[in-house]
Description:
By secondary structure, the protein is α+β, with helices and mostly antiparallel strands. The protein has helices spanning 38-48, 114-121, 137-151, 189-204, 232-241, 262-265, 338-360; strands spanning 5-7, 11-16, 22-28, 65-67, 71-74, 79-82, 87-92, 156-164, 167-168, 211-218, 246-251, 269-272, 275-278, 286-287, 290-291, 296-302, 312-315, 321-324.
Amino acid sequence: xxxxxxxxxxxxxTWGESHGPALGCVVDGCPAGIALTEAxxxxxxxxxxxxxxxxVTQRREDDVVRILSGVFEDERTNGQVTTxxxxxxxxxxxxxxxxxYSDIRDTWRPGHADYTYDAKYGVRDxxxxxRSSARETAARVAAGAVARKVLGDSVTIRAALVQIGPRxxxxxxxxxxxxxxxxxxxxxxxxxxxxxxxxxxVRKAGSSVGALVECVVSGVPAGWGAPxxxxxxxxxxxxxxxxxxxxxxxxxxxxxAAMLRGEDAADEMYLDAGKPAFRSNHNGGVLGGIxxxxxxxxxxxxxxxxxxxxxxxxxxxxxxxxxxxxKGRHDPCVGIRAVPVAEAMAALVLADxxxxxxxxxx
Length: 362
């Protein structure tokens, strides 16, 4: 199985399966001398881990990260810093229930990667989906925490859930402070309350629902990214599309740009205290593949979780027509826990582009 690595100068490789003994990643290309401890990584893991509300999977994982390599004591500060060597991170799986999947070992679940894995590899790990499971994103979040250390405090990455099913937030009530005060990473407290009722109905029906995550990055200077095939927005889109269940990505105005006229879509410029500034941000902080210095705005649409209790028509590996109902513990809206994953993927892309921007000036 190839393509388990993402990035260029700053890159990471994930390993492990949903029901294996552990999973993790190796981060390569991190500069030496950056303060890094397990305590720097854990808060982001805690934000993503399952079982934190009735609206997500009830699988119980502590998601405690261990740093196995790539750090050492700094005699100057008595702290732990990166050495420039590959950083290996490991997260143990402690609450697998593989028996929940014994009934579907030879059945392809509609909407899952079961059929495509069999078609490509001739073998698949049916226990929770193996490598195709969203459990793999725990390793991405760990790697993303390292990327944030590379970016430093000048770059702020925040994501929020702005839509579940047909119900959207009211942007007039957007308050970043609300994101960590509800179960949905929602910036609109009133909509979060409505979502709770919506999700109760979805869960009781044995179904699932899709969602829209919006990620906003502040503090990226003008000049990151490259034209043609190294575009910053292209790399962000690729990163977001690699998230499990992602089906669409928008940058800035996104699909709504198709409805605009040229004079409306152009982000007019003016001089603000002697520096270039923009009157709008339809382009989401990127022009010609290169950052403008404005906020980067990325949205990713997450499809409904395919593991549902409602019976669906399908096939077995021997091509027998049948129906399937998925048992076990699953997210009725996987988009909720995709919020910290989107932040991590943004951080990983930006850390890479920061190093690439520096290399371009050497």
